[in-house]
Design goal:
By secondary structure, the protein is α+β, with helices and mostly antiparallel strands. It folds into two domains: 127 residues, 2-Layer Sandwich (STM4215-like), CATH 3.30.2000.10; 140 residues, no CATH class. The chain is built from seven helices and 17 strands. The strands form three sheets. Strands 5, 6, 10, 11, 13, 14 and 15 form a seven-stranded mixed β-sheet that branches. Strands 1, 2, 3, 4, 16 and 17 form a six-stranded mixed β-sheet that branches. The chain is elongated.
Length: 298
């Protein structure tokens, strides 16, 4: 049964058991050499979650049983330049192909996987926002084309043509030559952890120069895995790429209503951004109600 002393370890074990958090260093402030451990995690791996020491009070001193209310902080930290600046080593269609890259990917590099089947997003362009695109319902190029051309800001520029597929990437070509602003993707729900949606420019549009060209941009939706340790031959060698806010959500979802023992329950209360300038840090706050038994102390 958890007690005040061991509760930190219960929280740590809970987070370490989550496959989606593989690659996020989980530390407690009671760890030996904690400051250096945090520094190593942030500077080498890019992300960490630090579990604070529980602090509590007895809110019902007249109760026959001692009711201890504990407050606990978990700080999620991300070294943005390192974590978001990882290079992409390869693009594969599934896990088997990723594991087959053993010994060819360097630690920290990303392999992107194209087997995406669900997720919702919208596209913004010059003040307009498209209708929602639900990949589990219709991921066709025709649906995406209609969503784009349904925006006035696209229609006023002569509409676009869309080629490709979800797995290949959607290639968006403006029907009229000339430079264009970049499409902006608004990520919604239902994406699996580690899914990254982005737009890259394949060809800059031009007019009135040496050659008139249409603007071509590509919408890519991938699940990013980065090599955490080992050669890459084992699934446990890979972590999902996540930024601090995504890690925070997984931490809060993992711990909310977590009950390590009878008459104990963890509740996610709030989160706040910290003051650090060199890294993104977000402090999640949890409250735990614990009941200590009334066994006489001899």
């Amino acid at each position: 049964m958890s007690d005040i002393v061991s509760f930190q370890n219960d929280i740590r074990a809970r987070l370490l058991s989550k496959k989606t958090l593989l690659g996020v260093t989980i530390l407690t402030v009671d760890d030996h050499d904690i400051l250096n451990e945090v520094q190593r995690a942030i500077s080498r791996l890019g992300t960490a979650a630090i579990i604070g020491t529980p602090k509590g009070s007895n809110d019902s001193p007249d109760s026959p049983g001692i009711q201890q209310t504990l407050n606990l902080m978990v700080v999620v930290m991300e070294n943005v330049p390192l974590n978001r600046g990882r290079s992409i080593a390869a693009t594969v269609t599934n896990e088997s192909e990723r594991l087959a890259l053993a010994d060819t990917v360097q630690l920290g590099q990303i392999v992107e996987q194209t087997d995406i089947g669900e997720g919702r997003f919208r596209i913004a362009y010059e003040g307009n926002v498209s209708k929602e695109i639900d990949l589990s319902v219709d991921a066709s190029v025709n649906f995406l084309r209609d969503a784009l051309n349904g925006m006035d800001s696209i229609g006023e520029q002569g509409d676009v043509t869309v080629m490709g597929s979800l797995a290949e990437g959607y290639t968006v070509t403006w029907n009229e030559n000339g430079p264009r602003a970049m499409l902006q993707l608004i990520k919604g729900g239902d994406f699996l952890p580690g899914t990254v949606i982005r737009v890259v420019q394949s060809q800059a549009g031009s007019i009135g120069g040496e050659e008139d060209l249409p603007e071509i941009q590509q919408i890519l939706i991938r699940r990013w895995y980065w090599l955490v340790a080992g050669t890459g031959a084992n699934p446990t060698n890979w972590g999902l790429f996540m930024v601090a806010s995504e890690i925070l959500q997984l931490v809060m979802r993992s711990l909310h209503r977590f009950a390590p023992a009878l008459n104990q329950a963890v509740v996610s209360r709030r989160f706040d951004y910290g003051p650090r300038e060199d890294v993104v840090d977000i402090q999640a706050q949890f409250t735990i109600r614990m009941f200590l038994d009334a066994t006489p102390v001899e």
